[in-house]
Amino acid sequence: MVRLYLVLLAASLLTAEIGGADAPWELEPPRGKAISPTQIELHWNEPTYPNGILKPYNVTCYVEKRGNTSIRVSTKDNTTTTITVSSLQPDTAYRCYVEAATYPPQGQDPQRYTTRSEPSSPIWTKPATELIYNSPNILGKT
């Protein structure tokens, strides 16, 4: 009887460690800056309460006036809290949000274990003129 109890206790601890907690919470909006006319760099903090083992983060950036145009990227692991978003339009304001998720128990809806931050303040990409001025051919370099 004692062995059965220990096996059940170990199984419940393993379930709590791997998944089955809840969605992370207190995830702040990302902060960012333009690094080129087509790229922005974003930073964010880990959730205050991860509530389990985190999956890699998903980041979505969109043009506010064209809400259906968005770019989604993922981090390589669950400890990376900085990412560069590319393929953006020059001189355009983007809003971005971060999604953090824990591993759900088998058979559970993964959305229940996902949290989305509020959108960031607008982050403007640099003007397209920087593409021209920084071109090696314009500067006489090959």
Largest sheet: 5 strands, antiparallel
Order of helices and strands: HEEEEEEEEH
Structural class: alpha+beta
CATH class: Mainly Beta
Provide the low-confidence segments as ranges. Answer: 2-19
Strand content: 25-35%
**Total strands:** 8
* Tally of alpha and pi helices: 2
Assign a percent range to the helix content.
10-25%
The domain count comes to 1
Radius of gyration: 21 Å
- The CATH topology, please? Immunoglobulin-like
- End-to-end distance: 78 Å
Which CATH-level-2 architecture? Sandwich
CATH superfamily: Immunoglobulins
Organism: Taenia asiatica
Protein name: Fibronectin type-III domain-containing protein
Domain Fibronectin type-III: 26-128
Signal peptide: 1-20
